[in-house]
Design goal:
OB fold (Dihydrolipoamide Acetyltransferase, E2P); single chain; 396 residues; 16 helices; 4 domains; GMP Synthetase, Chain A, domain 3; N Utilization Substance Protein A, Chain:P, domain 4; alpha+beta; three-stranded antiparallel β-sheet
Length: 396
Amino acid sequence: MNPGEVLRIVDSIHRDKKIEKEIVFSGIESALVTAARKHYGEDANLEFYINRETGFIDGSCNGRPLTTEEIELTGRIDAQTAKQVMIQKIREAERDSLYDQFTTEIDQLVVGIVHKNEGQTTILSIGNVEAILPRSEKIPGESFRIGDRVRAVVVEVKKSGLRIKVVLSRVRPMLVRRLFEQEVPEINDGIIEVKEISREPGYRTKIAVVSIDPRIDAKGACVGIRGGRIKNINMELGNERVDVVEWSDDMMVFIPNALQPAEVEEVILCAMLGRAVVLVNKEQRSLAIGRKGQNVRLASKLCSWDIEIMTREELERLLDRALTGYLEIDGMTEELADQLLGEGFLSFDDLSIIEPSDLMELGQLTEEQANQIIKQAETLAETAEENGNNNTEDEE
């Protein structure tokens, strides 16, 4: 093989296929070894090395240096085998190069052109790579036609034979984050930070933002003049509703923000249970809960607190019923019952999951006394559940 030809082949593959020259050199060396085995035998210890600067080839067989004639013969014999090995190596290198490229794109926004639909799965072309958008990663109800431009985030990249498999998603919260980064320059510039996102794809999303510059209104910037920025995002998400809320590390502020557009009267934090009891008036109750519980569910995810919506009258009735029930437990004092209510334990079911150590500390109890109270609470919770089920059956 002519040294100049070797260098031209390497340079051509490097430019056309975007493969590192070292990988191409190694591929040619492997191809020479494979071809030479046809002549020297499968058990021969063969080595070939190409000088990266000159293109000259050195080789050895079982430690004996090969002559120039032997090396030239190796380059001629079974050229088809050598070619197949080279093609294999190049394809592997192409795959590895694409794999490395797309693994850096995980969680990033990409634009693909719909190539075809296979059942409920959409195949998109991203450059020279085919990516899949499975049904499970599509917004409910959406479909695409061949030629449509689709924006999605990369969620998985893996090698599959000589190709790579790229999986996209349009349902992950990350898609919303990336769309806001595109639409709102202040986010891309780091002036506004996206803190949390909770999403039910195709229906509603809540996104919490904060500005590091007190002169910038984070919520206003994200919504845009006359809602221009948020409308673009709504359209991209198939008219999914997006609520932008002000983030705060003070849950007494953040939870009411997260429940917007409902108005909140009071927030009671129950740290032991990770629960927030939110009081609203009767007119705001349905709005705070939302259709099928969606508003309070998304707010809970956004804040990482279990939010319960109730009116003040409902809370008072619940407290009275819980106090009466707790006082029926052996070993329970009125003082301990009040403390439990103050910590947000509003039912036998709540009390049944308290940590014994926490109950011991609250009531100055021994471990045996605490476990006895918890055991009674478990039994009473089961009885209450059975009675509830029986009442439901009677109603039916």
